[in-house]
Structures are given as structure tokens and as C-alpha cells.
Design brief:
Elements: E1 8-9, E2 33-34, E3 105-106, E4 131-132, E5 157-159, E6 183-185, E7 261-263, E8 287-289, E9 312-316, H1 319-331, E10 336-340
Parallel strand pairs: 1-2, 3-4, 5-6, 7-8, 8-9, 9-10
């Protein structure tokens, strides 16, 4: 950046200002850039994939409302100091750090997120992120957390017990492919407004247990691939789940190969249309309690029990359910003991 008087006034709309400067390794004299009047910084550094350092400490962000994709695909940055950022006016943080795959940690303790409504894909594909403290985040206005933490491969633990999720409607694939994660605290989650849990925990292969007792699933319609690929889960308590409005359970427990028993005795499946691959690959499952399940609306059920073990014990509601389940076992060339529940 060059200037005659030492100052450059940034345009109020500074979106895409350095977009796709893919061979840029550093930005000299960026401190000359004055951002007092900037309201839009979306995609400002998007695609600066060779950038190894970035000093934005002189940025005045007090008027900025949009930071969506601001650092998206800054894949060579290993650190980023945003301690001077004033984010009190920001409403959009969609993909803010997405695909910045070399970042190992982010200190966002000074972020004011009280007006943010969308955090979807915010940290998606931050592969090397090993530490993330979001205890200062105010998420009361956030409605979308789709893929917020998906595809982070170095994160061992994540404590979101401070999150207020009462306004969130979409948590699709929120934690999917967090392959190193062994501890996840979502004990304070208010999910009474959530309609989609599709893939929320999919392929979190390091998790052996999950406390889901706080989840309100009364408005959820989509649970497809919810626990798909969670091969490390040894127990799963879903007794608090309300599935009255769920229509999609496709691949819900696909590949949960460490589960030996599954109690779905409280599941109301009267609205479900898809159960394809629901238990496929649950190779250690010997007991399944499905005592309230109604399969009359189910139209898609291919590979429902493919890859399970022979001799599984399944408890069902009535003779119609017994006939349905026996047929699905037959489809998979499996045998089982399907018994009608007697109160």
C-alpha cells in the first residue's frame, strides 16, 4: 500500500478488498488503511491463501456489521491477533475463519457477539485448530449454527456450556468430522427452536459418550445421519428425545460399530418417512428396543440393517411392526429375535 499523506480511507463497503490475492504473502503498510467508516468487511481477505502474516491491529471495526468470510481460505496463516477488534455492531460472521486450515489457535475473548445472528460455517475446515475458548461469546441472537465447527481435526475438547442457543433453528452438521474430539460440553444448550439436527455429530469418531439430556427435540424434523460414523460411541442415552415431528432418520446410527445396545423405547416414529441405512454397520449391536415405533409412514428403508450382527434382539410394538422389522432383516440377509413388547 502506498500513499502520499500516510493515510488511505477505506471505502465503507470494503468487501472483497484483497479478494483472491492468492500469491500475496504479506501486506506492507496496511496500518495506513483507515477503516473508521467501513461497515462491510465481508470476504475482505478471502482467498489470500499464501498470506503468512496479517497485522490488523490498527483496524477500527466499530461500524462494521458484516464480517462474513473475512478470513476465509487464508490457509497459510498460523495465527491471527484480533484483540483490538470491536465487533459490537457485527450481525454476520458466516464462514469468518472457514478454510483457514493452518490456524492452531484463536483468541476471541474480546469479541462482542451480542448482535450476531449467523455463525454458520464460522470455523469450518480449520483443520489444525487445537484450542478454542468461546466462553465469552454471547449467542443469544444467533439463529444459524450450521457446520459452525465442522471438519476440525486437531481439537480435543470443546466447552460450549456458556452458549445461549435459544434462538437457533439450524444445527445441521454443527460438529461433523471433528475426528479428534473426545470431550464435548453442550449441557446448557436450549434447542427448543431447532428443526434440524442432521449430521450434527457425524463422524466424531473420538467421542465415546455424549450427554444429550438437555436437548429439546420437540420441533426437530430432521435427524438424518445424526450419529453417523460415531464409531467410538459405546453408550447413547436418548431417553429424553421427543421425535414426534421427525420425518427423516436416514442413516441416523450408521456405522456406530461400538454400540452393543440401543434403547429407542421412547421414540415416536409416526411421522418418519425415511429409515434407510438407519442401523447399517452397527456391527456390535445385539439389543434394540423399538417398542413404540410405528412404521406405517416409512416409505424408504433400504439397507436399514445391512452389516449388523445375526441374532440381534429387537423389541417392537405389535405384529405389524414385527412383520416390518423381520422383512428389513431379511433384506439384509440377517436373522434376529423380534418380539412384541408386553407391558
Amino acid at each position: 500500500i502506498q500513499t502520499n499523506n500516510g493515510l488511505i480511507m477505506a471505502n465503507p463497503n470494503s468487501a472483497y478488498l484483497f479478494f483472491n490475492f492468492a500469491i500475496l504473502t504479506t501486506i506492507n503498510n496496511i496500518s495506513m488503511l483507515r477503516t473508521y467508516y467501513v461497515t462491510n468487511m465481508s470476504s475482505m481477505f478471502l482467498g489470500c491463501s499464501a498470506l503468512t502474516s496479517l497485522d490488523v491491529s490498527t483496524f477500527d471495526t466499530s461500524s462494521v456489521t458484516d464480517m462474513g468470510s473475512m478470513f476465509n481460505d487464508c490457509s497459510s496463516l498460523t495465527s491471527l491477533d484480533l484483540s483490538t477488534f470491536d465487533t459490537s455492531s457485527v450481525t454476520n460472521m458466516v464462514q469468518m475463519f472457514a478454510n483457514s486450515s493452518s490456524l492452531t489457535s484463536l483468541d476471541l475473548s474480546t469479541f462482542d457477539t451480542s448482535n450476531v445472528t449467523d455463525m454458520s460455517w464460522m470455523f469450518c475446515n480449520c483443520w489444525d485448530l487445537s484450542f478454542l475458548d468461546l466462553s465469552s461469546f454471547n449467542t443469544i441472537k444467533v439463529t444459524n449454527m450450521t457446520r459452525m465447527f465442522s471438519d476440525i481435526y486437531a481439537l480435543l475438547s470443546l466447552d460450549l456450556s456458556s452458549f445461549d442457543t435459544s434462538s437457533v433453528t439450524n444445527m445441521t452438521s454443527m460438529f461433523t468430522y471433528n475426528t479428534a474430539l473426545i470431550s464435548l460440553n453442550i449441557s446448557s444448550f436450549d434447542t427448543s427452536s431447532v428443526t434440524s439436527f442432521g449430521g450434527i455429530f457425524a463422524y466424531c469418531v473420538g467421542l465415546t459418550t455424549l450427554d444429550l439430556s438437555s436437548l429439546d427435540t420437540s420441533n426437530v424434523t430432521n435427524m438424518n445421519v445424526m450419529f453417523s460414523g460415531c464409531s467410538g460411541l459405546t453408550t447413547l442415552d436418548l431417553s429424553s428425545f421427543n421425535t414426534t415431528n421427525v420425518t427423516n432418520m436416514y442413516g441416523m446410527f450408521y456405522g456406530c460399530r461400538s454400540l452393543t445396545s440401543l434403547d429407542l423405547s421412547t421414540f415416536d416414529t409416526s411421522s418418519v418417512t425415511s429409515m434407510s441405512q438407519m442401523f447399517q454397520g452397527c456391527s456390535s449391536l445385539t439389543s434394540l428396543d423399538f417398542r413404540l415405533a410405528d412404521f406405517t409412514t416409512v416409505t424408504s428403508y433400504s439397507s436399514m440393517f445391512t452389516g449388523i450382527t445375526n441374532g440381534i434382539t429387537i423389541t417392537v410394538l405389535d405384529s405389524a411392526a414385527q412383520t416390518f422389522i423381520n422383512a428389513r432383516l431379511g433384506d439384509a440377509s440377517k436373522t434376529g429375535n423380534v418380539t412384541i413388547y408386553v407391558p
